[in-house]
Amino acid sequence: MSFSIRKSTLFISQLKSKMGLLGLPKQNSWSSSTYFHREAQVDQNFRYPDASFNGKATFLSSRRFESTKAQESLNILTDPDKNQVLDFPGGKLKLTPEMRFISETPCERAHCYRVLDDDGKPIMGSTFVQVHEDVAVKMYSNMVTLQTMDSIFYEAQRQGRISFYVTTVGEEAINIASAAALTIDDLIFPQYREPGVLLWRGFTLQEFANQLFGNKDDYGKGRQMPAHYGSNKLNYITVASTVATQLSHAVGAAYSLRMDKKYACAVTYFGDGGSSEGDFHAALNFAAVAEAPVIFICRNNGWAISTPTSDQFRSDGVVVKGRAYGVRSIRVDGNDALAMYSAVHTAREMAITKQRPILIEALTYRTGHHSTSDDSTKYRSADEIKWWRVAQEPVAKFRKWIEGNGWWNDEAEIQIRDSARQQILHAIQVAEKVEKPPTADIFTDVYDVLPFNLREQEQLLKETIKKHPQDYQQNVPV
C-alpha cells in the first residue's frame, strides 16, 4: 500500500508540473499560445483572421468550469498550503492576504482595430479579410447610394413631403461593411440607423420611399414612423423606436438558431446611448449564459442625441463591458470599411462555430443631426462636425482604397452618383402618388375577430374624418 501511495504521489507531482493554477495547460504544452491572450484582437499571424479560430481548443470557453468537489482529496494531498486557493463554484480562486481593489480605470485604453490609414492605404502589418473586387465595388456603390438617399430624403422632409427622417451620415461604413460580411440567413435586429444593411440585402429604393410616405404599398401599412423599415423576406426585423429593446430579442432568436442547428447568427445594432439601458446588460448576460450565436454591434458615435459619452458612462467605452459578462469583444474603427468588414466576418465565424456571443464597439462620428427633429449645433461645435466630415469621412476613405487597387475611377463615380440620384427622385414621385392604406388597416392584424371596443373606435374615426375632411389627407380611403 505504501508503494502505491508513493507512486500516486509521484504521478500527481508530474501532473501538476504540466498544469497551471486553474488546472489549465501551460502555454509551452500547446502549439498556439496566442489564442487565449488575444481574445479581442484579430490574430496577427494570419492574413485571414478567422483562420486562427479553426479547430482549436478554447481555454476559457463559455462552457462552465467543472465542479472541483470531486478533487477535494486530491487538493488536500497535493497543495502545500490549501489556504492559498478557494474552491468556489465556477472555478478555483487564488487567495491573497493583501487588500487590493480592482481599479476602475485601466492603465491603457482598449486598442482600436484599424486597417486603412487616413489616405486609404493599408497600414503596414495590418491583418484583414481579403475582399474581392466585385464585393468591394458593390460596397462602395451602396455607400454612395446610402449617402445620396440620406441627402434627398432629408430634403424631402424639410419640404414637408414626409414627416420624419433619420440619416446615417458618417456611419455608412458600419452599415454597408457589416452587411457585406453577413449572409441573408443571418437575422438582423436593427435600431433606426441601419438602412444600409437593408439596402445591401436588396431592399429597393422604391420600397424605402413607400415606407417613408406610408402609402398602401408600405409593408407596415402606414402604421410605423418613417425610417422604421422592416422586411420578412430579407430577415430584417422591423425597427422599433424604443431604445435597446431589440437586444434581448436578438439573443432569443440566436438561441433558437442554435437549437435548430442553423448555420446562421443574429446580429443586433445599437448606439452608445443604448448601453445605458437595462436591456443592454440583461441581453449580454443572457447571451453569455445561453451561449447564443449573436453579434452585438455598438455604433459609438460619441453622442446619444445631445448627451456626450462622458455623461453616459465612466468606463473605457462599451467594449470593456463585454468581459464583465463573459462576452468576447473588440473595438473597431467604424469609419474604416475594411476593418469593419474583417471584424464582422471573423465575429460571425466565431459566433456560429464556437456558439458564443461577440460584442463589437465601432467608433465613428454622427456628422448629421440625430434626426430631422434635432439641431446638433446646439450641443456641439460646427468646427468639430466639419473636422470629422473632412478628416475621417468613411466613404471617401474607402474610395481611395478601391482606386488604389485600380477598381474605381472618376467616370464610375459620376455614373453611380447620377444614377442613384435619378432613381431616388423617381421613387419619391411614384410613392407620393400612391394612395394611403384604408383607415380600417389601423385596427387589423392583432385580433382574429375585432373586439367591440375597437369596432366602436373605427366607426368613430370614420365619422370624424367625414365631419372634418379638411384635417385629413384626401387620398386616405375611409
UniProtKB/TrEMBL annotation:
Its cofactor is thiamine diphosphate. Keywords: Metal-binding, Mitochondrion, Oxidoreductase, Potassium, Transit peptide. Residues 142-437 form the Dehydrogenase E1 component domain. This is 3-methyl-2-oxobutanoate dehydrogenase (2-methylpropanoyl-transferring). InterPro entries: Alpha-ketoacid_DH_E1_comp, DH_E1, THDP-binding. SUPFAM superfamilies: Thiamin diphosphate-binding fold (THDP-binding) (SSF52518). It is found in: Mitochondrion matrix. Its EC number is 1.2.4.4. It comes from Quillaja saponaria. Heterotetramer of alpha and beta chains. Pfam families: E1_dh. It is an enzyme of class 1 (oxidoreductase). It comes from the Eukaryota. One of its GO terms (cellular component) is mitochondrial matrix. It catalyses: N(6)-[(R)-lipoyl]-L-lysyl-[protein] + 3-methyl-2-oxobutanoate + H(+) = N(6)-[(R)-S(8)-2-methylpropanoyldihydrolipoyl]-L-lysyl-[protein] + CO2. Belongs to the BCKDHA family. One of its GO terms (biological process) is branched-chain amino acid catabolic process.
